[in-house]
Structure formats: structure tokens, C-alpha cells
Design goal:
By secondary structure, the protein is α+β, with helices and mostly antiparallel strands. It is 40% helix and 16% strand. It folds into 3 domains: 33-150 and 316-420, Periplasmic binding protein-like II (D-Maltodextrin-Binding Protein, domain 2, 3-Layer(aba) Sandwich); 152-280 and 433-467, D-Maltodextrin-Binding Protein, domain 2; 484-527, no CATH class. The protein is built from 21 helices and 18 strands.
């Protein structure tokens, strides 16, 4: 064979070999199923923390073939995002939600939330704060893991009270009003130098409703009766709350400057020109704002009204749940595994997560959970009992975040945890259209505290609007009327057991007694032909 012929043959063999190699099947890639986790933790330090957490879980703890993917949206669009994606049949797998949304997300018609496994529900009942378990329960089902926990209390400046001759905070409305007037100071031009009491008008109807409910309950009143349904907050007990607040702003001796509300008090804590406010747990921004003077503050129960028998603090919580979409797609077990992992009491983390000055390193050996550690870093009381007992503040030493004092030894965390205990705390009762009701209560509160609107007229108008929004007991399929279709659904569910296949998310438990029975039939018959508020 000639040299050029040999070369040609070799080239042909080489080409054929390359062609054959290109035709060989490539090794199969492992299929990864993403578990999308939608939440509202959008601050850079929060995103960084959870990026580390999910990285740790995905690399060392996730079931084979599953990975957690984080999606974050701002709080003010979270509800609408969840609802919009559900309509588009594009639900995330895990969602962080306000517990008051449960009735909207877990009803027979919407069915956004999946019923948690029995062991998850038992875990929450055994290891979480009592009021957060109640706040996360709807029709006998605990719908997920409670997270953020908030209660309400009277926050006061001890130094301001002592300078005014008072050694203890007020315990009754009469004492509150008298002290607030006495501690208020003005200069020669009538400008407020010191405010004795200021309402919390933060711009969010949620906070105004809880503030109102705390004083309402502490005056022996009730909010609504969902079995009738009937508005109750417009009773004498509720009217007295708004009349009290109206006197603080527009009475003969006002205690705050309504013209500069609601923002001026954000700085008033720093210069200590404010004596008392009724505030929620999460207002710990004042810790950084006041510095060493933060220790001048103290927390007491909400003062008791003239018709009250004891102080009550409206409590509410957030929670993490799994969607029905994830259940239907076979991803629920993996989703619950992740949620169980971040809520697991851990004597020491398996692999320390990297830290940063903004959030600190994750403490090891503190007996708290990953979820609890995050909440405490965000100045929020965690709802799991081991986190309340073992959680620690984060301090920065030499540019590195380290575990500091126990939160039970911190007056702010301890004070609000005490107010959330059964002696004072009372969980919010969720229901359909609660966001719309909340907006109307917020409007009522703002009109009375910021514009001096007449409490009687304002409350009457608000009660009329809210009454029209309340859901009609017996409207099981949520179509706005109690009719034969509801009766058929109830008959199907008679004597069903919560959590069973036939229970169908507790749709027919009208009386909310964890059972579908003759009591529910009685309510349906009573309301047959009536319409609901949606």
C-alpha cells in the first residue's frame, strides 16, 4: 500500500471512530425535583441566611432527587401572589402565611393548603406555644408549623414615669388616662414636648385591629360571633375603647399631637419624649435606635377597662404549610421533611452554616431550631417552646456574630412571651373575608385617632360594613348562599373524622367542634336560604 493510501485509510478510520463516538448515548443525568418555598423574607440579611440554610439542607439532608428552591416576595404582595398563582394553577410547594389566612386557604372551595400528616400535627400540639397552636388550627386541623409569634402589651419608659413621680405602670384605664395626661408636657407655644400616651397608628390595618382587640377583650368585649353571624365589637365595651382613644387625641387634655401622626413617634423613643404605647412584639427596632437607653423601657399587661375582669393580649402568628398542589404532585413528603428539619430541636448543627456580621454565625449547641434562631435574629419571638427556652440573642464580637444571652433573660422577649401565655394571650380567630374586615377596623381606628371623628358614628358605620362581610354558617361550598348543595355535602361528611380521607379538609364542620354531626345540621337548617358575606 502506498504511503498516501495508508494515510487516507487512517484518516477514514479516525473519522468513523469520531462519528461513532458522537453517536454514543450520553450518560443519563440525575433528575432533580425542585421544592419551591415561597416566603416574604426579602431583606439582604434574611436572603443570605436562608441561602445558607437551603444550601446546607440540599447538600447534606435533602431526600435523594429533591432540592429546595427559595422564592421571596415583599410582605404586602404575599397574599395576592399566593392567590394569583393558585388561580393560574402554579402554586408553590411550601408557603409562609399569616395564620389568619387559613380559612381562606383551607376551605373546601379554595383548597390551597394540604392537610399535614398526623405526626406533624402531633408534633406541633406537643412542642409549640398553646396560643400559636390554637391560631394555626382550623376545623380541628393544625395546618402547619407556627413560626413568628406576636402578642401585645403596654410598653412604657420607666425613666419618664419615675421623673413624673410614678413607680409602676397603670393597670386600669382610669390609671392609664390619668397618668398619660399628667406625663404630657407642652412648651409655651403649645407644642408637645412629651407625650403621655400615643396610639399605634402604623399604617397597617392589621396592627390597628389587634391593638383594638386587645383593649376590647381587656374591657370584657367580644369581636364577632361567627355562629350567628353577628358583629359584637360595636357593643358598649368596644365603643369605650374608641372613646378612650378619642379623648387621648381630642379630649380636653390631649396626650399626643395628632397633626404629626403617625410617624413622629418613631424618633420619639430615641429622645425619650414618649411615656406609654400599646405595641406588638416585633417593634424591637427601638433596641438599636435607643442603644443603652433601651433598658429604660419595660413591658406590662394591657390595662383593664371598666367592664373587664382581666388583661388580655391579642396574639397572632405566622406559619409554614404545604400546598395541595405539592400533595397532588407527590412532593409533599419532601416538603414536610424540610419543614421538620428547620423546626427540629438541635443540640448541635450537623454542619455549621457560614455567617456574616449582618446575621452572625449560627450558634452551635444551644438547643434551639434553625427556624427559631432566624426569628430571634429578626427580633421576633419564636413560637416553638424549645426556642423560647434555649434561644439566644446574637451579639457581634470582633466582627463575628456569636450567641449571647438567653432570650428568657431579656426583658423584651420575656415580657412579650409572658403576655402570650394562656394567662393573658388569646389567639385571633380567622374567618373568610378577614382581610376586608381588618381594613374596615383600621379605617375606623385611623378616623377616630387621627381626625377626631365621632366614635359612635364611626363605629356604627364600620359595624354595618363588617356585618355584610361575615360568612354565613352553613355555606359549605362557599358560593354565597346556604342551599341544597351544602346539605348534600354535609350529609356526605356526617360523622367523618378530621384528617381522614372522607374529611375533605373539614368542610362541613360548621360549628368548628372538630366533628360533623347533628349540631352542624341544626345550623344549616336554621340558615337555609340565607346569603353569606362574600
Amino acid at each position: 500500500m502506498k504511503r498516501n493510501e495508508m494515510t487516507l485509510c487512517l484518516l477514514m478510520v479516525l473519522c468513523l471512530s469520531i462519528f461513532a463516538l458522537t453517536r454514543l448515548p450520553s450518560p443519563a443525568r440525575a433528575q432533580v425535583t425542585e421544592i419551591e418555598f415561597l416566603n416574604h423574607w426579602t431583606e439582604p440579611s434574611e436572603v443570605y441566611y436562608w441561602a445558607n440554610v437551603t444550601k446546607e439542607y440540599n447538600e447534606h439532608h435533602a431526600p435523594s432527587g429533591y432540592q429546595i428552591k427559595m422564592t421571596t416576595v415583599e410582605f404586602d404582595i404575599l397574599y395576592d401572589t399566593i392567590m394569583t398563582r393558585h388561580i393560574a394553577q402554579n402554586d408553590p410547594d411550601i408557603i409562609s402565611i399569616h395564620a389568619m389566612w387559613i380559612p381562606t386557604f383551607a376551605n373546601w372551595k379554595t383548597a390551597i393548603l394540604a392537610v399535614p400528616p398526623a405526626d406533624v400535627q402531633a408534633n406541633v400540639k406537643a412542642n409549640w406555644t398553646q396560643v400559636t397552636v390554637a391560631g394555626s388550627t382550623y376545623k380541628g386541623i393544625v395546618w402547619g408549623f407556627p413560626t413568628e409569634f406576636n402578642s401585645w402589651g403596654l410598653v412604657y419608659n420607666k425613666a419618664v414615669l419615675q421623673a413624673g413621680g410614678y413607680s409602676a405602670p397603670p393597670t386600669t384605664w382610669a390609671e392609664l388616662e390619668s397618668m398619660a395626661v399628667d406625663l404630657t408636657e407642652k412648651d409655651g407655644t403649645g407644642k408637645f414636648i412629651k407625650s403621655g400616651f400615643v396610639p399605634f397608628v402604623e399604617g397597617m390595618p392589621e396592627e390597628q385591629r389587634y391593638q383594638f382587640m386587645s383593649l376590647l377583650w381587656s374591657n370584657g368585649g367580644e369581636f364577632v360571633d361567627l355562629n350567628t353571624p353577628k358583629v359584637l365589637f360595636n357593643s358598649t365595651n368596644g365603643l369605650e375603647v374608641m372613646q378612650l382613644y378619642n379623648r387621648f387625641g381630642f379630649g380636653a387634655n390631649p396626650t399626643y399631637d395628632y397633626l404629626n401622626m403617625p410617624d413622629y413617634w418613631w424618633n420619639a423613643w430615641v429622645d425619650e419624649s414618649i411615656a406609654m404605647m400599646v405595641l406588638p412584639t416585633w417593634m424591637t427596632y427601638v433596641r438599636d435606635a435607643m442603644g443603652d437607653n433601651f433598658s429604660h423601657l419595660a413591658i406590662a399587661p394591657v390595662p383593664v377597662g371598666p367592664h373587664g375582669t382581666g388583661s388580655k393580649s391579642a396574639t397572632y402568628n405566622w406559619m409554614l404549610g404545604v400546598t395541595q398542589k405539592a400533595q397532588d404532585a407527590g412532593k409533599a413528603n419532601a416538603a414536610w421533611d424540610f419543614l421538620t428539619w428547620i423546626n427540629k430541636e438541635r443540640p448541635q448543627y450537623d454542619v455549621p452554616l457560614p455567617g456574616a456580621v449582618s446575621i452572625g454565625a449560627v450558634p452551635k449547641g444551644n438547643g434551639a431550631t434553625i427556624m427559631g434562631d432566624y426569628l430571634i435574629r429578626d427580633s421576633i419571638v419564636p413560637s416553638r417552646l424549645c426556642d423560647q427556652a434555649n434561644g439566644r440573642l446574637t451579639v457581634v464580637i470582633g466582627g463575628v456574630g456569636q450567641a449571647g444571652a438567653l432570650i428568657i433573660d431579656d426583658f423584651w422577649f420575656k415580657g412579650f412571651m409572658d403576655l402570650g401565655a394562656p394567662a393573658y394571650g388569646r389567639s385571633d380567630q380567622g374567618f373568610l373575608k378577614i382581610k376586608e374586615v381588618q381594613y374596615e377596623i383600621g379605617q375606623m381606628f385611623e378616623k377616630v385617632t387621627l381626625t377626631g371623628a365621632d366614635p359612635v358614628i364611626t363605629m356604627t358605620d364600620t359595624a354595618t360594613k363588617v356585618q355584610a362581610m361575615l360568612p354565613m354558617p352553613g355555606d359549605i361550598n362557599i358560593d354565597g348562599v346556604v342551599d341544597i348543595y351544602d346539605a348534600v355535602n354535609l350529609i356526605k361528611d356526617i360523622d367523618a373524622i378530621p384528617g381522614s380521607v372522607n374529611w375533605n379538609r373539614g368542610r362541613s364542620d360548621i360549628t368548628n367542634d372538630n366533628r360533623v354531626s347533628g349540631a352542624d345540621v341544626t345550623v344549616l337548617v336554621r340558615n337555609y336560604g340565607k346569603t353569606g358575606g362574600y
